[in-house]
Amino acid sequence: MRGKRLFTGAALTVGTLAVTGLAFAPTAAAVTPTTATTTASCGIFGGGAATLTATQSGTSATITLTSTAITAPLALSANSITSTLTMAKSGGGSVAFSGKVNPAMATGDPVTVGPLPGTVASGDSLDFYGGSLKMVIFGITVTCTTSSAQSPGPFVFD
Fold first, then answer.
1. In terms of pTM, does the model score above 0.85?
2. What are the boundaries of the signal sequence (predicted)?
3. pLDDT digit of tens for each residue in the chain (158 aa)?
4. For the structural domain made of 31-157, what CATH number should be given?
5. How far is CA 85 from CA 10, 14, 137, in A?
6. Residues with Cβ < 8 Å from 127, sequence gap 6 or more?
């Protein structure tokens, strides 16, 4: 009986420490908003509404750009587009998110690039307005820009 009480007491102590640890654990870094929209122009390759989705974990962040208005000119295999998404930083400068990350797309499918990784600092405020997206597809560079700020506002990183 004594062993059972000892085991129960130890279990309660471990449970209490676990709950206390969770209460004092640092919160995960977060970006706000997590989704924004803009209108992108990609020259002769088209343009229109685009959605940007951001995530953050410490100083690492990713951004994905998806647009139903900008479509794949040809069938593209997964991870075949080399992309650099440059976001304008409030107060000057920029932050680049780069990679070769995209789903497979059939001709005419909506374009999606990302999640493209990048490094951010606490307090960074980033907007596609003033930045650009450069995609290299089969050796052809496609550059997309916007003429207005993203909505509901810039991504602000913790």
1. no
2. 1-25
3. 444 443 434 333 334 433 333 334 344 469 999 999 999 999 888 899 999 999 999 999 999 999 998 888 899 999 999 999 999 999 999 999 999 999 999 999 999 999 999 999 999 999 999 999 999 999 999 999 999 999 999 999 99
4. 2.60.40
5. 53, 47, 15
6. 87, 88, 90, 149, 150, 153, 154, 155
